[in-house]
Amino acid sequence: MCAKLLNDVATPLFYPQKFILLTDILDQFGELVYSRMKKLTKEYSNGQMIITDENEASIDYSQVPEKVQEICRNWFLKCVCIREVLPRIYLELSLVRSARFKNIRVQQSDLMRIAKMIRGVAEPMCAAYTAAYLARIGQAYFPKNKDYLYTLMDFMFKLYDRMVAKGHPSLDLPVYLELFEPTIDWLMQCIAFEAERGVFV
């Protein structure tokens, strides 16, 4: 439901605040699923496999009990079953941390796939903020991977041209464009993180 609310741009001036509030709820949902996976891993391994914040990076997730892997796969299958693009993207991104429990780590190619899906979001503001959320998740888990960010930035340039051409029915163009600044700033920060100077030349 939270992800569906991000489809609503009836009050564009409020959209950035709504984005922050709703993505915070989605992040909490992702953390709850991750905590549940850790608890189930301990339960189905009879206490032999205990995952903590300290050892999670060194755990061999191929040893996660098959039942836990199945439950985790079911969560991601639920994402695939969502027909609307925007809720599907947001839900899948909120579950990225739990992907390791199905013994398949999220790869750069997955981020690129989602970046290309975002190009199919028709509403410019929805698309821009979804791109920012993808960049935030990518930065948290794959800070050195940049290819999907270049795809997003190229999309943002095209989005900008479309916004300038069409504008907004109830807002002056400068006010409307200002609403997109946080998304562009964040994408640039992610691209600039530990980047070589040649990236900006």
Distance between the termini: 43 Å
Number of continuous helical runs: 9
**For the residues shown, what is the average pLDDT?**
87
How much is the radius of gyration in Å? 19 Å
Portion of residues in beta strands equals under 5%
**Biggest sheet character:** none
In short:
63% of the residues lie in helices and 0% in strands. By secondary structure, the protein is an all-alpha fold.
Walkthrough of the structure:
This protein is mainly alpha-helical. It folds into two domains: 1-105, no CATH class; 125-201, no CATH class. 63% of the residues lie in helices and 0% in strands. The chain contains nine helices and no strands. The chain has helices at 2-5, 15-44, 66-80, 85-94, 108-118, 124-141, 147-166, 173-178, 181-192. The longest helix has 30 residues, at 15-44. The radius of gyration is 19 Å and the shape is globular. The model has no long low-confidence stretch (mean pLDDT 87).
Provide the fold topology.
Blueprint: H1 2-5, H2 15-44, H3 66-80, H4 85-94, H5 108-118, H6 124-141, H7 147-166, H8 173-178, H9 181-192
Task: Fill in the keyword field for this structure.
9 helices, 63% helix, globular
